[in-house]
Write a structure and sequence with these properties.
The chain has one domain. 75% of the residues lie in helices and 0% in strands. The chain is built from eleven helices and no strands. The protein has helices at 2-26, 35-41, 55-72, 81-85, 88-104, 108-128, 138-170, 179-201, 204-221, 226-249, 255-261. Helix 5 packs antiparallel against helix 6, helix 7 (138-170) crosses helix 9 (204-221) and helix 8 runs parallel beside helix 10.
Length: 265
């Protein structure tokens, strides 16, 4: 039990530290600029409309639920969620916090490395916690699956955007491709990753975050780059169809069905 307490304490402390650093960066405590300022400075056509970033509030809330749920498992953790989480959630929090600090100081090369570490840690958590592979009660879905799934879905999008910003910072010429054509290539890549999550890992929630990003990209580019907006809309429609079809096929295991059956634990 002592090891469980230590792991959960570190997960909680690192999460609170990460949340503080995100707040401090927006309050300009580390730099005269914010994360949004740097994003605008190295803007890309792949970036979504500003409203899309409110999803961070949901991610932070779900992460809080994740660590609170782990505290309830300290004395009785039959599925070993704390042990399987290990230090990977801690690593994700450190990577997130360092990314924010590096971003506001325009150390974009370090930002790419850190977001890849963040993505890798979330992928490891997805595998170790066996997300979405088996039928589980609502408590597992709400407090284990959703926090990591939603986080992973957004970081996949953020990784592509971060790399694109770093390439602009580095003066890269996009293989001499037109910026719109390069953005469409990135959109197709993101779509294929989300299709993989649905078809292979049953992760509708992660794909739903991808859908959120595609719609926001379409909204932002609607009046400026019709080809990008059109591609984002098509990608959104594909994800809507795949998510709906997967949900229908697994309708007996959806949270709403479980709530009716009272399958909380």
């Amino acid at each position: 039990m002592k090891k469980n307490i230590t792991l959960v304490f570190l997960n909680t402390a690192s999460l609170l530290a990460m949340l503080f650093i995100n707040y401090a960066s927006n309050a300009r405590l580390f730099s005269e600029v914010t994360v949004a300022d740097i994003s605008h400075k190295y803007d890309t056509l792949f970036a979504p409309a500003n409203y899309a970033f409110i999803i961070w509030g949901l991610i932070f809330l779900l992460n809080l639920g994740f660590v609170i749920y782990q505290w309830t498992l300290i004395k009785n953790d039959p599925k070993q969620y704390i042990r399987r989480t290990g230090a990977w959630f801690l690593i994700s929090n450190i990577a997130n916090a360092l990314w924010v600090y590096c971003w506001v100081h325009e150390w974009l090369g370090y930002c790419v490395m850190l977001i890849l570490i963040l993505l890798f840690s979330l992928i490891v958590l997805t595998v170790k916690l066996e997300l979405e592979l088996y039928d589980e009660p609502l408590s597992t879905i709400f407090f284990v699956w959703w926090p990591i799934s939603v986080y992973l879905g957004w970081v996949m999008v953020a990784m592509i955007a971060c790399i694109a910003s770093w390439l602009i910072y580095s003066g890269w010429n996009n293989f001499n491709l037109d910026p719109a054509a390069w953005t469409i290539t990135m959109l197709v890549t993101a779509l294929l990753l989300n299709i993989f999550l649905i078809q292979i890992r049953n992760m509708r929630e992660s794909a739903g975050v991808g859908l959120w990003a595609f719609i926001a990209i379409a909204v932002r580019q609607f009046d400026q780059h019709a080809s990008i907006a059109f591609t984002a809309v098509i990608a959104s429609l594909i994800l809507i169809i795949l998510i709906a079809r997967h949900g229908y096929r697994n309708r007996l295991y959806l949270p709403f069905a479980k709530i009716k059956r009272g399958e909380w634990k």
